[in-house]
Amino acid sequence: MALTYSNPMQAGTTAPAFNLLDTISGKQLTLAQLASDKATVIMFACNHCPYVQHILSKLIAVANTYQNKGVSFIAISSNDVKEYPQDSPSKMQQLAIENHFTFPYLYDESQQVAKDYGATCTPEFYIFEANLQCVYHGRFDESSPGKSVAVTGQDLCQALDAILAGKSIPEPQHPSMGCNIKWKAAK
Q1: What is the dihedral angle through the alpha carbons of 175, 160, 115, 32, rounded to the nearest 10 degrees?
Q2: Mean pLDDT for the stretch of residues 176-187
Q3: What CA–CA distance (Å, rounded) separates 53 from 168?
Q4: Which residues does residue 76 pair with via DSSP β-bridges, in sequence order?
Q5: What is the dihedral of CA 116, 105, 63, 170, to 10 degrees?
Q6: Phi then psi dihedrals of residue 47, to 5 deg
Q7: What is the pLDDT of residues 73-120, one digit of tens each?
Q8: Does residue 1 surpass a pLDDT of 70?
Q9: 75 within 8 A of 105, measured Cβ to Cβ
């Protein structure tokens, strides 16, 4: 595991479109099908990352709360499953079912979606407004494994609350940090 920080996405950047396998339903899903007319959270995650595991239960609770307010949540795993089989679609489905995900858990086999978003780590969070323009790219909160700070989802929740209230996103936006995305070896 290499500790990696996210690279900022320019505010106002349009969310790159995608068509990916939802490991829960087995269907191909697009951003257009999943986006909300209020706000859409796209998060890069994976099964084995201790940073994702550290926030997972609170993340699911936050997603449930904000989905009830019309916010869409989308999780995407882009890891190389040949080298990291615990992140395979079948294992993704198992994790999602066991943890009662209420949002799709998409598999980016080609890793092109991660590249399109400029994603570098798991977990990594993006929020797009109704017009799919980026307004937030950063961390869930300041907690991390081994740190005695409670997992709250504060940074993500503050940004979502601002969007839902029609206000500006609080600054500064802190980068996400976690495991690096496990890129496939160049051919």
Answers
A1: 180
A2: 91
A3: 30
A4: 44, 106
A5: -10
A6: -75, -40
A7: 999 999 999 999 999 999 999 999 999 999 999 999 999 999 999 999
A8: no
A9: yes
pLDDT reported for residue 187: 65
DSSP 38-83: SEEEEEE--SS-HHHHHHHHHHHHHHHHHHTTTEEEEEEE---TTT
C-beta of residue 156 within 8 angstroms of C-beta of residue 41? yes
Ranges of H-type helices in the chain: 31-34, 50-67, 89-98, 112-117, 154-164
Mean pLDDT on 47-64: 97
Contact (CB, 8 A) for 121 and 85: no
Model pTM score: 0.96
- Report in angstroms the alpha-carbon separations of 151 from 39, 47, 53, 61, 142: 22, 18, 11, 11, 8
